[in-house]
Amino acid sequence: MRTAVRLANRAGRAVLVSSDLSSTVDVQTASGGLFGPSTRDVYDHWVEFIEWFKVAGNSFDAMSEAFVPGDFGPPAPEPRQVFAIGLNYQDHADEANLTYPEVPPTFTKWVGSFAGPESSLNLPTTTVDWEAELVVVIGKRADQVAPESAWSHVAGLTVGQDFSERTLQLTGPAPQFSLGKSYTGFAPQGPWLTTVDELKDPDDLAIECRINGEIVQKSSTARLIFSVPQLIAHLSSVVPLLPGDVIFTGTPAGVGGARKPPKFLSDGDVVETSIAGLGHIRQTCTTAR
Fold first, then answer.
1. C-alpha dist (Å) from residue 117 to 6, 69, 72, 256
2. Closest Cα to residue 219, out of 114, 86, 111, 88?
3. CATH 3.90.850.10 domain locations along the chain
4. Could you tell me where the DSSP H helices lie in the chain?
């Protein structure tokens, strides 16, 4: 019985990615119309979807299509809510010479900034920074959830980038975190959503970012100050988390703005972000208007 799910978004339709990453199958077609066509519909019926998949997950070969990751969009393209967490890696706080926060600093990235796993990133200024991130998608409503039960509310995990335009982000007197991190294409995610049963330890995943082949960030989600369960518990103590909601969990050390002198993205730069067990995403920077 196959239980691990890789769910992707192809042209607005939910598709399942085969375990060997060689093919995909349309969810609405495979389920005879029970689920889909959108990923939003799948998340809204996540518990039922997983029960169906446990029975039917090995019977899709005759319906499969070629796997083309460049055709994919973000795995959860229509969240009702998007949460983003700042200063959530010990090594990132250390490089910024900041004390560890007592509660998760929280902002948002607007949905208009969402992009797929392989995309072109237009640089609006000369101060755009990179931030590799683990992204969580909620599968079951979470309201006042305790940390020990938080993973049961997660549909799965994916790879993300929290690109940040530092000048606007830090404009005062009130910093503009949400707006400065929400330019078009500033929230790429993918290549698919992976359920946690595919992972040996979802609390300890190697995360890495390369620019033009050079490693600029290399860490583990085990270094999160607030783990995924702790984030879900904290956020759900304030507001219910809904199926399909997206949480950017923070970035490790190695961002350009913390370097001396600072280093930012330039025309032609290729940003590759990977997380063990989840795959990788790739953005090519451009200044073309």
1. 14, 7, 7, 21
2. 88
3. 82-286
4. 27-30, 39-44, 46-56, 90-95, 166-169, 177-180, 228-236
* Tokens (6 digits) for 287: 């200044």
Q: Which residues contact 191 (CB under 8 A, 6 or more apart)?
A: 8, 69, 72, 116, 117, 118, 158, 159, 279, 280, 281
Structure-block tokens of residue 265: 């993205």
- 126-159 per-position pLDDT tens digit: 999 999 999 999 999 999 999 999 999 999 999 9
Domain with residues 82-286, CATH architecture: Alpha-Beta Complex (3.90)
Range with the lowest mean pLDDT among 47-61, 101-115, 142-156, 161-175? 47-61
CB neighbour class for 281 (10 Å; exposed up to 12, middle 13-18, buried from 19):
buried
